[in-house]
Amino acid sequence: MNSGSEQHKSKTVGLALSGGGIRGVSHLGVIQALTDHGIRFSHISGTSAGAIGAAFIAAGFAPKDVLNIIKETKLLKLLRPAFGSTGLVSILNARFLIEKYIPHNSFKELETRVTIAAVDLGSGKLVYFTEGDLDIAILASCCLPGIFRPIVINDRMYVDGGILNNFPVEPLVGNCDVIIGSSCNHLPEITEIKSFGNLIDRAAMIAINSNLGVHKNLCDFVIEPHGLGGYGIFDTGAADEIFMIGYEEGLKAIKNNGKLAALVAEQKQH
């Protein structure tokens, strides 16, 4: 028989964050809306931009603080590839910023459990990082193949986890009572392509969304802001707008989804 404390124990909530470049700032807006209403997370998983968000939130930063760090340090500009360069460029120039704001640089010392997805280029398999140096795992997860040099960890080459799973919900399954997913790659219908960059971005989004439904089905709630399709993955000047789109979508989800509203009420009680 359960004790009273067990019967009234708060549900553990997991959060899955997709990749998506600058569109990943919308995750911060979604998190702001959820945490403003009392939701707290026991486990966060992410890939690429979602990995960055997961790490900073798990380190104790408020979503708006992370937004300011991204803008002030031009973090995503450091992750932007130099298309004019001959050959691949290194993503390691962003490493010092992660170490600056999360100096312990350790999964173990984060306030919330974090899982970061990357792809082992040698084996062609998806890998989940849950321990070791945080910065190098994040950069591996953000390492777009064909643009950045692969990140080498223990003699293995790693690239962007979004290649195989851009919405890493699986690490949360069985480890959390409730799973909330934040996906920033809603695919709107279009009638024209205005540039080569738009073409590449569109093709990437189509590939990313091809198996999105499978991952969505693993979530109890999915928050997917519309209106992000007009922003390129490196459209860094739009960070504030994208944050607000995520925030408003989060508020809308809480208002319009009775089960999510019930979860909010329960979390507030505890």
Task: Walk me through what this model shows.
There is one protein chain. The chain is an alpha/beta fold and 270 residues long. The chain contains 11 helices and 8 strands. Strands 1, 2, 3, 4, 5, 6, 7 and 8 form an 8-stranded mixed beta sheet that branches. Strand 1, helix 2 and strand 2 form a beta-alpha-beta unit.
Key phrases:
hydrolase activity, 270 residues, Patatin, Acyl_Trfase/lysoPLipase, eight-stranded mixed sheet, PNPLA_dom, lipid degradation, globular
Order of helices and strands: HEHEHHHHEEHEEEHHEHH
Q: Assign the structural class, choosing from mainly alpha, mainly beta, alpha/beta, alpha+beta, or little secondary structure.
A: alpha/beta
Q: Work out the radius of gyration.
A: 18 Å
Based on Cα principal axes, name the global outline: globular
Instruction: Work out the number of β strands.
Output: 8
The rounded distance between the terminal residues' Cα atoms is 21 Å
Q: Fraction of residues in helices?
A: 25-40%
Q: Assembly type of the shown chains?
A: single chain
Strand content: 5-15%
Q: Which parts are unreliable, with pLDDT below 50 for 5 consecutive residues or more?
A: 1-6
Average predicted confidence as pLDDT? 86
Number of helices: 11
Largest sheet: 8 strands, mixed
Provide the fold topology.
Blueprint: H1 4-7, E1 13-17, H2 25-36, E2 43-47, H3 49-58, H4 63-73, H5 75-78, H6 95-101, E3 113-120, E4 125-129, H7 134-141, E5 151-153, E6 156-160, E7 178-182, H8 196-209, H9 212-216, E8 221-223, H10 239-256, H11 258-269
